From TrEMBL:
The keyword Transferase applies. GO terms for cellular component: peroxisome. Substrate binds at residue 357. Its cofactor is pyridoxal 5'-phosphate. The modification N6-(pyridoxal phosphate)lysine is found at residue 207. It comes from Danaus plexippus plexippus. Its EC number is 2.6.1.44. It catalyses: glyoxylate + L-alanine = glycine + pyruvate. One of its GO terms (biological process) is glycine biosynthetic process, by transamination of glyoxylate. This is Alanine--glyoxylate aminotransferase. The keyword Isomerase does not apply. InterPro entries: Aminotrans_V_dom, Aminotrans_V_PyrdxlP_BS, PyrdxlP-dep_Trfase, PyrdxlP-dep_Trfase_major, PyrdxlP-dep_Trfase_small, SP_NH2Trfase/AEP_transaminase.
Length: 389
């Protein structure tokens, strides 16, 4: 018996039931039923054959998802930010320059991270309701000669999608690598890593992939791999892509232990990828485009204003909507949650207090969901008018 008495009393942790909501913010999204089931698959030891077979399935699924033939593709333990951290810290050393094409909060986060690594982070900004054109970027590449350009494909804080065609070539002409955040676009919006000359990309599992957060796909091109092999700096141990590539057997003969990954999350990601492979990417992209176009049309028919003026800049997975004057965003979201069981989000970063952010993606990308959200939004306008105006 230990002689010392415990001084911290036993806490009251009771059973807790949580209401299941239709998650229609910019993420997380609801899970595919098959993914919920996958989460209960057996826990595997990190050095058994089944574990390596799952990793191989995930890597093959990710090559399809990113549309790349690169060897250096794997998933990081952690949410989207871990992917961001991995890409930045592995590719760019202290005092090197990273150019950030800034239009939303994720670019601001990248700038924050880069600064912590001693990277010379410079930015080019545009109004948050717009996207970049090649000329705007070229001027800055010329001026800064950066090691890499960071840009966000789908921006969930603004509801915009950045056209990436031609950007890889442009960056390479100026000796820069192209880093892309696809956290909220991957699976829901066309993305072609190899064709577009993207050198490093990260994504997440909890948006259009309809899985749980906590495991984040990343991929690096040959050009990026060369830079990593030449680098003089050390990235954080946990995110060191050279070590992770060994754990993930990226080159065919290195099954080693680096850290204990979460088998439930690996099973889940594998299952999300299987769902996407069954649907095929072109079909799934088309589904997101069609459903969101229908959603936007119905919103406009019912007097709502979309935040992003140009239709081609609007993101197919997350739509930003301005509420008519006199309504309180918080009150509006709470009404819809309490009366319709649907969770919408308010603005974030540049859109805070200026718009709603509504995600229709992955398992929730259906006409029924889009219609249910519009109907709930109309109902909220009717019922909140008296108290809000
Ligand atoms: N990038 C984008 C575009 C995102 O939408 C998010 C999350 N909403 C992140 C990065 C960060 O991802 P996480 O919250 O999974 O760390």
């Amino acid at each position: 018996m230990l002689s010392k008495k415990v001084t911290v009393p036993v806490p009251r942790i009771t059973d807790r039931k949580v209401r299941k909501l239709l998650l229609c913010g910019p993420g997380p999204c609801n899970l595919w039923p098959s993914v919920t089931e996958a989460l209960t698959q057996p826990i595997l030891s990190p050095l058994c054959d089944e574990y390596f077979r799952i990793m191989e399935d995930i890597r093959n699924g990710l090559k399809y998802l990113f549309q790349t033939q690169t060897d250096l593709v794997l998933a990081i333990s952690g949410s989207g930010h871990a992917g961001m951290e991995t890409v930045i810290s592995n590719l760019i050393g202290p005092k090197e320059t990273m150019l950030i094409a800034r239009r939303g909060i994720w670019d601001e986060r990248a700038l924050n991270m880069a600064t912590r690594y001693g990277i010379n982070a410079v930015e080019v900004r545009i109004p948050f309701t717009t996207t970049f054109n090649l000329e705007q970027i070229e001027d800055e590449l010329q001026k800064w000669k950066p090691t890499a350009l960071f840009i966000t494909h789908g921006d969930s804080s603004t509801g915009t999608v950045q056209n990436l065609q031609g950007l890889g070539n442009l960056c390479h002409r100026y000796g820069a690598l192209l880093i892309v955040d696809t956290v909220v676009s991957i699976g829901g919006v066309p993305f072609f890593m190899d064709d577009w000359g993207v050198d490093a990309v990260y994504a997440s599992s909890q948006k259009a992939l309809s899985g749980p957060a906590g495991i984040s796909p990343v991929a690096f091109s040959k050009r990026a791999e060369m830079k990593i092999n030449r680098r003089k700096h050390q990235p954080p141990f946990y995110f060191d892509i050279k070590m992770l590539a060994q754990q993930w057997n990226c080159y065919g003969n290195t099954r080693v232990y680096h850290h204990t990954m979460s088998p439930p999350l690996m099973w889940a990601l594998r299952r999300s990828l299987q769902e996407i492979c069954t649907r095929t990417l072109p079909m799934f992209w088309e589904q997101h485009a069609t459903i969101t176009a229908h959603f936007c049309k119905r919103l406009e028919q019912n007097g709502f204003e979309l935040l992003i003026p140009k239709a081609e800049d609007r993101l197919a997975t997350v739509t930003t909507v301005i509420l008519p004057k006199g309504y309180d965003y918080k009150e509006y979201i709470t009404y819809i949650r309490d009366n319709h069981n649907i969770l919408l989000f308010g603005g974030l970063g540049p859109t805070a207090g200026k718009s709603l952010r509504i995600g229709i993606m992955g398992v929730n990308c259906t006409r029924e969901t889009a219609d249910a959200i519009v109907n709930a939004m109309i109902d909220a306008l009717k019922n909140l008018k008296k108290c809000s105006l």
